[in-house]
Amino acid sequence: MKNLQQNRGITLIALAITIIILLILAGITIGSITGNKGTISQTHEATGNAQRQSIIEKIQADLLTEKTKTGKTPTKNDLINIIKEKGYAKEEPGTDSFISKDGEQEIKYNEITGWLRIMVGDTVDYTPDTVTEEEKSKLVSDLQKGLSEGYNGKIKNTSVNQKDFNWKVYNITDDSVELISDGITDDYIALYGVLGFTNGVYLLNEYCNSLYNNQSVGATARSMNIEDITDKLKTDENGKKVYEDFEDYIKYGETAQILSLVPKKWQEDKDENLSSWGTLKEYQNEDDAWDQNEIERNLKQTYWNEILEDEFITINTREENNSNFYKEVCEMDEEYWLSSRYTYIFGDDLVSFGIRRLNGYSYEINGTDLCYNDGTNGGAFFKVRPIVTIPINKINLNGDYEANGNMWKLK
Q: If we measure between CA atoms, which residue out of 80, 19, 184, 110 comes closest to residue 399?
């Protein structure tokens, strides 16, 4: 009987201890879920942050639309008017912030407008990735695929080197910034023949991306192309740009029926997407790069040649209103490739296929004929102008541009 009572006593004590332990553990678990730093609290915080960012991005898109429409950087009053008109605020916006209708978040105006502080012409402290010897070797190997048989120029595409550049803002979109190098490469890239036409655009872009990308910030690189120029040209009273009136045998943009061999690359694009990378083409026999059927085809005149010195639009930069930035940034003491193809119809059944180039000291857009519709080849070698595209959220736009030596730092 005595032993039974002792066992019951021990059992009750053990039960009490177990209950106490369970209550402690329950308290810890509930606290971890519901406390200030608990799972529920963190989930609410993450949801709130996502909602907040979504509101900011929507307002930024509206501001960009306003900036594009007016050509001016929106003011604080413009921002407040957009917040009111679009119904983003729960109540009357304050002097420095507003309470959002969705989620009742307090959002400061400088959280929204920080990115508006970056301007065309600004310098960005950008550094590309280091290029390994293995990567250089692959690039050199690929560059040989832009040279048809019979090429005997002095530039053989046998070495590539990364050059140090300063990088200036060339374009700004709602989610990225395009940076243009302040110079051209030391390397010359040779292109020759039908392989030069077929692979030239791809290789110029690959050359730039291999040497000037930065994977850690999601930055890619490419060669400057013809659209980088034409997008910055003025229009006349009829809404036309100067090159649209170019005429040589037939007018720019018109088509003609020509008895012609054509490169398969032309057959693939049909005079469209002239700056698209495409893929690197390899042929066991370079004759296979031609569509060998000599038949009548509708070819479009996509070549034009103009001096653009007085044709660039002006833009407000940090240093100057109505700046000639786009004209000045194109000025170099040499010619350089533009990664864009063209078709040049210059006579009865006379057609050439080539790659664009820019004469940096005369502002002349020209081109190099790389192959002709009779199967013959041409070629040249020029330097290259890299352009980098970087996500705008990788640039620290909350920093002080002037205090950082007149440049934006990366995050």
A: 110
Torsion of CA 195, 201, 204, 209, to 10 degrees: -130
Q: Enumerate residue ranges in the chain where pLDDT < 50.
A: 1-7
Residues β-bridged to residue 352 = 344, 372
- Regarding pTM above 0.85, the answer is no
State which amino acid sits at residue 205: N
Distance CA 47, CA 287 (A): 60
CB-based contact 200:146 (threshold 8 Å): yes
Kindly report the number of other CB atoms within 10 A of residue 339's CB atom: 29
Which of helix, strand or coil describes residue 242? helix
CB atoms within 10 A of CB 386: 27
**What pLDDT shows up at residue 71?**
66
Q: What's the burial of 380, exposed, middle or buried (CB within 10 Å: 0-12/13-18/19+)?
A: buried
Q: Do 304 and 242 contact (CB within 8 A), yes or no? A: no
